[in-house]
Structures are given as structure tokens and as C-alpha cells.
Amino acid sequence: MENRKPILGITMGDPASIGPEVAVKALLDSNVYEVCQPVLVGEADVFEQAIQFCGLDLKINRISKIADAKFEKGTADVFDLNYMNIADLKMGEITAEAGDVAFRTVVKNIELALAGEIDGTVTGPINKESIQKAGHVFAGHTEIYAHYTDTKKYGMLLVEENLRVIHVSTHVSLRQACDLVKKDRILECVFLIDEACKKLGIANPKIGVAGLNPHASDGGLFGYEEEQEILPAVQEALKRGFNVEGPIPADTLFPKAIGGVYDGCVAMYHDQGHIPFKTVGFNWDQAKGQMKSVRGVNITLGLPIIRTSVDHGTAMEIAGKGIASPDAMVLAIEYAARLHRNKQDNL
Q: Which pTM does this prediction carry?
């Protein structure tokens, strides 16, 4: 089996956001070229602009096919899509033009992976409002990837140190999220996170399943979802041989998981999983009034291709200022390389 470093396609995200900035900054991290062969996918002029306002010592190598990449530290290989005129770019603004370019860039990266030209994909942040303004009716990256890879069963996994979280539902209203707490979907999430943990090198992952209601309903005092949907899913998972516990009150589950008791967690809805995750990975600098570190990786499970991402937003308010942290992007690249390596080892 060929043992080369994987070629990873790294998108710029929304061109008006911090996405291009964190991508070029990530290429200066000492570990990136040790674990992969990175190719930036997007607008070469936009990446060039980010290099300039950040004052980075980095050259651009514009390419139209992956075979022309140099993979040399100090040179950013850019698969140049040339979808826009940079003179039309309005940094820090939500526009249909930027949303359209961001969307088309994601689709191109997926196409490169499906064609086998790259070994995995890493995505910068997109803005859901700009995507919608451009007429692309998707809730986010996860749904775009599922659609363009024809994937029916998928999930969003968040990873930061010991904390690994999958969600029963993500981009829906809280009222809808309660209705989506169903046995079959919970079982699906247990399967997906168990498989993901194994791909990350955890041989026998222990999975904790959160309750939906306060105190996991306290025996039915505060709701019925635990008794009717969550517990039956856990019991069925146990019958199928999964190492799983639940339903566990969320305010107990996540502190234990952070401490290493559980290798993976099943959250019932978006914020239930995202809040503990971002509490661990995001660190605010009170004196400077900005984030000093933004860590954490978003991995889409169930796809035929590798997809990891930063799990922060477009941060339009600081776009173009050169102060965005590339920590999450570096981690996303490292995780994509790790997933590819483990996949190769298991072939």
C-alpha cells in the first residue's frame, strides 16, 4: 500500500470572511506539511489579499489541476477557480455574490474528492445567510455534502480533545428538534459515532447518550421522550453490542465526557452539544476584547469522502484585520490527515 501523505483540498469559505485568512495562516504551521499535502481551493486573488493584509511570508502557486501542485512549505498551492473579480469583493459584508462563490467552491472540492484527485476535504467557514441570498437552499456544509455525495445517513461530529459529540438534529428550530428525538435516529447516531471513534483509533468506544429534558425527565416528571424514545434506543444499541449508557442528564454527561469517562456523546439537538464543545475550545481574551484561541473540529460522518471543518463562524466583524486565529483550521487539517491515515491502515 502506498504510504504517501494525503492531498487535502482546503476551501476558503466565504471570501468576505476570515476563511481565506485562517487558511493561509494554517499553511505556516510547522505540522501541516508534516501530515499532508495541502491545496487551497478557491480564489487565488482572495488568498493573495489575505497574505498581504496579514503580512505573511508566503507565495502563491496558481494551478488549474492538482498535478501542478508543488507541496512546498512557503508556497501556497491554490486551485484557482476564478469565479469572481476581487474588485467586487466587500470584506466583512454578507452578499449573494460572496455566498455564490463560497457555495461553488465547496461543490468543486467535493467533486475533486469524488474524482479521486484529492484524498480529503477541509472546509473554511461559510455564511448561511449569504448562501441563501445566492439562491442555494442548504442549511450548511453538512447538508451540501450529503446532497452532492448522495448520502442519506449522516451526522455532524464535533471534536475537541476528549469531547466528541454527534447530534440527533442540528439546523432546525428547538420546537422541531424535540419532535426529531426518535429511536431510529438515536440508534443511527450511536452507530455513526462508534464508527467514527474507531476510525480515530479508539478500539472499544464508550458512548453516552444525553437526555432531552432537565434531569433526563426525572422518571417522567418533565417529559416523556426519555422513556418512549431515548431509553429504547439505548437498550437496542446494547443488544447490538455497543458500549453505550443513557439517557444521562446533559449537565452530567458532558463534564464526565470532558474528563474522559465517555469517548463519544450523543446530543439531542444543536445547542445541547455545541455549548459544552465551544466552552472547552473557545477562549476569550478579556483585555483585548477578542478570541485568543478558537479550537475544535467539525467532521461529517457517513460520507464516502473525508470532510473536516473549522467549527467557528465567518466572524465578519474582524474580516480583513489579520487577527483571526488559525487554530481550528490547523486541527481540521490534522484530523483529516489522521482519518485518511487510519483508513489506509485498515485497508
A: 0.86
